[in-house]
Every structure is written in structure tokens, then in C-alpha cells.
Amino acid sequence: MDHITLxxxxxxxxxxxxxxxxxxxxxxxEDGKGLSVQDSKNHSNAFHDTSVTSDHxxxxxxxxxxxxxxxxxxxxxxxxxxxLYPDGKTLNPQGVAFYHQLIDELLxxxxxxxxxxxxxxxxxxxxxxxxxxxxxxMIDDFLRFATTCFTEYGHKVSYFMTICESNNVVLYPDLIGxxxxxxxxxxxxxxxxxxxxLANAKVINCCHRLLPxxxxxxxxxxxxxxxxxxxxxxxxxxxxxxxxxxxxPLDLLCLGRQNPTVINYFSERGLDIRLAQxxxxxxxxxxxxxxxFNYYQSDVAKYCSQHQIQTQPKFNLAGQKGRYVYPQFPxxxxxxxxxxxxxxDWDWEIDPVGIRLACRKLYDRYQLPxxxxxxxxxxxxxxxxxxxxxxxxxxxxxxxxxxxQLAISDGVPVMGYYPWSFMDLMSTSNGYNxxxxxxxxxxxxxxxxxLQRYKxxxxxxxxxxxxxHGQSL
Length: 473
Ligand code: BG6
Prior knowledge:
Layout: E1 14-18, H1 21-24, H2 56-70, E2 74-78, H3 81-84, H4 93-108, E3 112-118, H5 124-130, H6 137-153, E4 159-163, H7 166-171, H8 185-210, E5 215-217, E6 219-221, E7 225-227, H9 232-255, H10 260-267, H11 277-285, E8 291-294, E9 299-302, E10 328-329, E11 333-336, H12 352-366, E12 370-374, H13 391-410, E13 414-417, E14 439-441, E15 453-455, H14 457-467
Parallel strand pairs: 1-2, 1-13, 2-3, 3-4, 4-5, 6-8, 7-9, 8-12, 12-13
Antiparallel strand pairs: 9-11, 10-11, 14-15
Helix pairs in contact: 2-4, 6-8, 8-11, 12-13
């Protein structure tokens, strides 16, 4: 199988790169913008400060010029919800204007925008009013915001994503405002899943009604789960992880069905997660045009008995190997490390073959075209005499793209590839210590420095890849 004849990347393949609003824009309170749940976390740890980040709000023209030079066919941006609706309810024309300017600049440079509607940054006002995604009121508020995006930008934008990684935000509640006091985390997870699935469906239906030519899909983060050994109990644990973390939410979003094992697991713990039939019908009525998925690493799952203690996963914030806290979900699975793989300094295990496996598994189950909307290596980069020699990033991206081409050759339809990230940005968990970009941004977490942009070695490498349409890989 390794020696199959390689198929070329499709002629209209979207060679892209991605960012998200709160991680690059800065200007967190400018031109009428309201606070997002991300802004409210400012200074809660040394790495998190959204006030300036990469200053893209003020430098977007220069940044788009760099995208053009890189040769991007497409750029994935997210629209900041509180820039458009500072209090969640009232439209801010200056916020609307900013994204017109940014999208126009992209189009002027022949770069196709891919717009993420929600990337972890809902208005803090909605979190304060009713606990955000834990409450059904979020559905109408999100629909209002999404409808504005469709009516304002729909004649310029052909590709939309609904909610970024709805499956991961439930795994890490602190990413999106946290679990309200007194609420059980599993109850919260189920409810957020449900509210996001309903919102996703309404937004997809609205998009198709208003913009029949546009394509829209949900987005998940997929760390495929390998069994720790061929002990059938470990194999079961890996299936549990895949079903609970990826297939349950994605079955709901794409097929309008709930996995019976997951229903049963919660029912035995006193939580009835069955949706009403009219809710399932609504969800099933929304037909996604593609599945967007973010892939960084794979996971390992091992048997975890009912009697083990529950442990929630914890990111490695130290940037030194060996600090990630693996989860333990009694009766389901426990995380473990993979002895066959190298890992980043933040313990993200590097697994290029996993992207091919993920493509195969997702296409086999859903038969929808795929887009890889994030993939990349977070690393300590060093600027020396205006240069960044990030050969490790080139190696990571190259191997993943080679495996992606194998997935395409296997017959999986892949529409595009968006490495994370176009430029250095505030990493969700680790600020500017941990960089992902093709473009270096001269700042640290504590010093804004010049904010000047520098092209890394990976910039020139990816430029070649795009120019050769993947043949230089
Ligand atoms: C993805 C998120 O899950 O992971 C991004 O969509 C994030 O927002 C990326 O930046 C990498 O994670 P981190 O914590 O290294 O920034």
C-alpha cells in the first residue's frame, strides 16, 4: 500500500493557511468592539493577552501582501463575534466595515477567503447573561450573528465554517468561558454539544437558504485514538475514545443521530442525553457540504476500569516535555504516550501517518469531502539576524502533506489544506512562546518589541510547494 501511484492534488486545491481573530487581531477594544470570553481571560496567565497579539487589525494590508507573496490560494480567517455584536445583540457598523476591508484586500490579491464563524470568542456579555453555550438562548444569538455575516459578506465569500472544534471545546471547558458553578462537567459537556449542534444546523440551513452557491461545514479537532496494545480491552478503549470524542459529536452534526453507546453510558450515570425527535430532525435537515478538521497529533488509549479515579486532561503549559496530564475516564479510556512517536516540547505527538488514517476514517464514515483547516507544529523559534531557520516545521509539514497526498491517492476527496498558522499568533495555551507561523512576529509575551514581520525558512518552502502544486514535496 505504501507504493501506490500518487495522484496529484486536485486542480482547484485550496492551498491555504489559517489564523483566528482573537489570536492575531489585537485592537481588542477598538472601534466599538466588545469583550469576548477570550479578552476576559487577559492576564489570567502570563501567556494570555489579547489586547495587541500580532496587531493584524492595524497591519492587515501588509499581512495580506505577505500572503500574496507566499502564494496562498486561500486564507482562513475568523470573524470576531463581539466586533460585530459587542453586547451580543446590537450591531456595530465599524466591526462590519473591518471585515469588508480585510475580505476586499484578500480578493484584490486573488486569495479566496474561508470564514470561520466561531473560533472560541463569543461576547462576554452573553456569558454573563446566561452562561454562553450552556444555554439555548445562544442559538438565536449565534444565528443573528451568522445571518449578518452571510448577508454582509456572502457575495464575497464562498466558504464558511460554523464552529471551530466543537468537540474539543467541550473537553476543555475553560477555553470558552468555563463551567458555571455547581454544574457537573459531564452535564455541561452534553448540553454544550446539544446547543452547538442545534446552532450549527440552523446556521447551515440559513446559509444554504441565503447563499445557494456557498459551501459550509462544521469543524472538529481529530486526534485519532490508537489502542495502547492489541489487548482487546485497549482496542475497546480506543474505540471508546473515538466514539465519545469525535464520532458522537460528528454523527450528530452530520447525520443527525446519537451514538447508542454514548446514550447508554450517560443513562447509567443518571444523565438522559437523548434529544427530542424534532431536534434530531432539525439537525438532520442541515446538510454540510464538507467536514473541516484540525489535525495536530494522534492519541493513545488504554483500558480504564470503572474504579479508576477520573482525571481531566491538562495542557502542558511549561513547554518542557513530560508535563501533559493524560485523562482518565473510568469505564471508557485512559490516555497514554506513544513510544513510536516524537513529540513537541509541549508533548504533542508528531504523527504524519495519522493524518492519512484520519482522512480515511472520516471519509469512510461520512462520505463528505474534507478540508484540513489546521495542521502545524508549535515550537520555540529563534530570530537570528532577521532569519528563522525552522527546519523542524518544514519537516513536520512536509511529512503531513506527503501523507495527505497518499490519502488523496487512496480516493479521499480533500478540498484544501490550511497549515496553522499563517503568521505567529497568541497560542491558545502558550502565548508567543509557542509559535506556529510561516511569518515571524517580533514580540514576546511580555515585550511588544517592533511587531515587525520576518519570513521564516518555512515561508520559502511552502511558497515552493504551492508554486509546484505539491510536486516539490
Ligand atoms: C487549535 C485551535 O485547536 O489548536 C487554535 O483551533 C490553537 O486556536 C491551536 O491555537 C493550537 O493550540 P495551541 O494551544 O498550541 O495554541
